[in-house]
Amino acid sequence: MMEFEDKTDAGKDPLGLRVLDAQDVELEKALTNFKSCVHAWSEAAYSRPRTPAQEIRHRSRRLAAGWALGCVLVAGSVSGGLFERHHKMVLAEITAQQRAVEQQRQLREQQAKATESDEVLLAGVDSDVSQQVPSAMEPLATPLADDETK
Amino acid sequence: MGHPVAAPEEWIRILWRVVNSDFVRASTWVMAAGTALEAVTMATAEDAAAQEFARVVEKHRPQIFRFLLASTRDVDLAETLTQECFLKAHRNWANFRGESSAMTWLMRIAINLQKDHWRNRRMQFWRTTRTNAVDLDEASEWLPSGESSVEQQLLAKERVKQVWRSVEGLSERQRTVFLLRYVEEQDLSEIAAATGLSEGTVKAHLSRAVSRVRLELGGKRS
Fold it and tell me: B82 partner at 20 to 30 Å CA-CA among A7, A138, B110, B126?
């Protein structure tokens, strides 16, 4: 039957929590060093010079810097938004003007085309119709000739 | 004929004589003296209590601060919690009946404050970015140089860093029990009184915490 090793030493460690065999000397040493470390740090931190005024000044400076930065960010974003809006409005105006100019140009072109087509038509009419003028007595000549043959 | 009815002026005169009589004057003096004596006694008791509390603060403040510093690894937070602890203790000083030692009573307040702080921090998750806790390397730098060689000093610092790391990984109760035992060197009954746990529970938490530390140091688990 296996026996459990009794690691407690009632004389030295009444709690029975400290492990005292050779293998755990390192653990005990680490714990002792840990305690010394905490004590040294605590003493140093406890006895450090305290400067509440400076701390308050630092805090107020930090607060002021934070507010200033926040204000700058807000102002920047607002002015950026306004600038962007203004820029869009200017662009829209330019586009509208360009569109109007283009429409006017197209209208003018259409009008010019229409005028040109009228002139061409009139020219055609002139060339086709008014150039072939019949002789003045011709319409009457043919019926008279018919009557004579009869 | 009946007794003649006294005029109002006569009644006032009679009352004035009674007020000015030696008996009334003497009793008034006695009452005033009693009131003054009571006030003086109360003031003296308050002074004594204040002096007693000041002595307690002077004696136990470093220990409370040390425990909170080890728990939080944050000097500013430890100072704030220490102040809150003594403020709370001052408010309830009249209710302290001395059933446990003042140190145990104060430690209990400190443990509860620390618990409340972490609970609030968990609730307010955005505060986690504002923690000022120093890292393990910095915390381990405070080891007094008691070792003989540089290698041994480095090894000791590394071991202390490992202990810090394992303490960081412990549960809240295990950490509290571990620090009270191995930093404050309190015995089981004191730890049980401070934490409100039974001695058996304290022992179990301590055992688990030590196992964790041993594991971190690369040893065997008990």
Answer: B126
- Chain A CB contacts of B206 below 8 Å: 17
Number of domains in chain A: 2
Confirm whether B161 is domain-assigned: no
Specify the pTM.
0.57
ipTM of the complex: 0.73
pLDDT in tens, B93-107: 888 877 788 899 999
Residues A42 and A73 in one domain: no
pLDDT in tens, B103-131: 999 999 999 999 888 887 766 655 554 55
Question: Does some domain include residue B178?
Answer: no
| A22 shares contact with chain B (CB less than 8 Å) | no
A45 in contact with B, Cβ within 8 Å: yes
Is residue A108 one of the residues assigned to a domain?
yes
Hey, of A32, A35, A36, A37, which one would you mutate to test binding to chain B, going by the most B CBs within 10 A of its CB? Answer: A37
Whether the pLDDT of residue A135 is over 80: the answer is no
Evaluated on CA atoms A109, A111, A112, A118, the torsion sign reads: positive
Contact B206 A17 (CB under 8 A): yes
> Domain with B80 in it: what CATH number?
1.10.1740.10
Cα gap A96→B114, rounded to integer Å: 68
Task: Look at residue A3 and tell me if it is in a domain.
Answer: no
- Alpha carbon distance B140, B163 (integer Å): 9
How many distinct structural domains can be found in chain B? Answer: 1
Query: Are B78 and B69 in contact, with CB atoms under 8 Å apart?
Result: yes
- Tell whether A31 lies on the interface with B, counting CB pairs under 8 A: yes
The verdict on residue A142 lying in a domain is: no
What b/e readout covers B20-36, taking b as 16+ CB neighbours within 10 angstroms?
eeeeeeeeeeeeeeeee
Segments forming the whole domain that contains residue A104: 66-121
Residue B129 located in a structural domain: yes
